[in-house]
């Protein structure tokens, strides 16, 4: 996205800086302003991408300094709007509450884009790419099991699309490692070492309901 905006002439440098609350908010008085200003300095001329931006605001904590970071962001977004693109990212419901509690932000950010969840087939393709990068693969039965896992997981709270799939694969690889360890003494082929079997997926607690 940063490169596209650069090619279109909206930004001068075309670089992307991704940050979270920890990069912007300090832990004591006087710490937040320099942290936030340093991030903004690095981002100037490019795109500042703030992931899970709703964590910047914690109304239940009187000693939280997130509001200070937001104020500094608002000033820069108003006074240097031609020098920086700011993207606030996060899940829809908490982001809606975040904007409601910060009218200054909602008035300065006109474009809101809601990305729909990936389909089961799309998430399966993403899972295969993740596994391929780690030199693992799904057996045909494991692929079916993972599809069933995704369908069930999508219906549960806190589903995070590709992140949830990544977590599921990490746990499946751990089960596979334990399964291989339990079969010690047997001669295993390379295929057996890199294959995730259906049982590695079906042991998930998602299937207990």
User: Mean of residue pLDDT?
Assistant: 91
Total of DSSP H or I helical runs spanning 4+ residues: 11
Low-confidence stretches: none
Helix content, binned percent:
40-55%
Please state how the strands of the largest beta sheet are arranged side by side: 1-2-3
Radius of gyration: 22 Å
Write the layout of secondary structure elements.
Layout: H1 2-7, E1 16-19, H2 21-24, H3 32-43, E2 47-50, H4 66-79, E3 85-88, H5 92-101, H6 103-108, H7 120-133, E4 137-138, H8 140-154, H9 162-182, H10 190-194, E5 195-196, H11 198-202
Parallel strand pairs: 1-2, 2-3, 4-5
Helix pairs in contact: 3-4, 7-8, 7-9
List the defining traits of the structure above.
single chain, 209 residues, mainly alpha, 3-stranded parallel beta sheet, 11 helices
Would you give an account of this structure?
The chain has helices at 2-7, 21-24, 32-43, 66-79, 92-101, 103-108, 120-133, 140-154, 162-182, 190-194, 198-202, and strands at residues 16-19, 47-50, 85-88, 137-138, 195-196. With 209 residues, it is mainly α. A three-stranded parallel β-sheet has the order 1-2-3. A two-stranded parallel ribbon has the order 4-5. Strand 2, helix 4 (66-79) and strand 3 (85-88) form a beta-alpha-beta unit. Helix 3 runs parallel beside helix 4 (66-79). The longest helix is centred in the last third of the chain and has 21 residues, at 162-182. The radius of gyration is 22 Å and the shape is elongated.
């Amino acid at each position: 996205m940063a490169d596209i905006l650069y090619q279109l002439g909206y930004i001068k440098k075309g670089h992307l800086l991704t940050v979270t609350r920890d990069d912007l908010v300090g832990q004591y008085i006087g710490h937040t302003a320099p942290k936030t200003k340093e991030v903004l300095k690095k981002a100037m001329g490019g795109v500042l991408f703030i992931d899970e931006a709703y964590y910047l605001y914690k109304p239940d904590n009187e000693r939280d300094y997130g509001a200070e970071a937001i104020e500094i962001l608002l000033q820069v977004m108003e006074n240097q709007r031609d020098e920086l693109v700011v993207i606030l990212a996060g899940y829809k419901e908490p982001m809606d509450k975040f904007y409601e509690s910060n009218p200054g932000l909602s008035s300065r950010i006109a474009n809101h884009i809601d990305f729909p969840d990936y389909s089961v087939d799309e998430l399966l393709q993403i899972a295969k790419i993740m596994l391929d990068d780690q030199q693992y693969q799904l057996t045909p039965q494991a692929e079916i099991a993972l599809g069933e896992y995704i369908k069930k997981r999508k219906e549960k709270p806190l589903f995070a699309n590709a992140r949830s799939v990544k977590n599921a694969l990490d746990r499946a690889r751990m089960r596979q490692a334990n399964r291989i360890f339990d079969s010690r003494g047997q001669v295993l082929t390379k295929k057996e070492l890199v294959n995730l079997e259906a049982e590695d997926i079906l042991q998930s607690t998602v299937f207990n309901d």
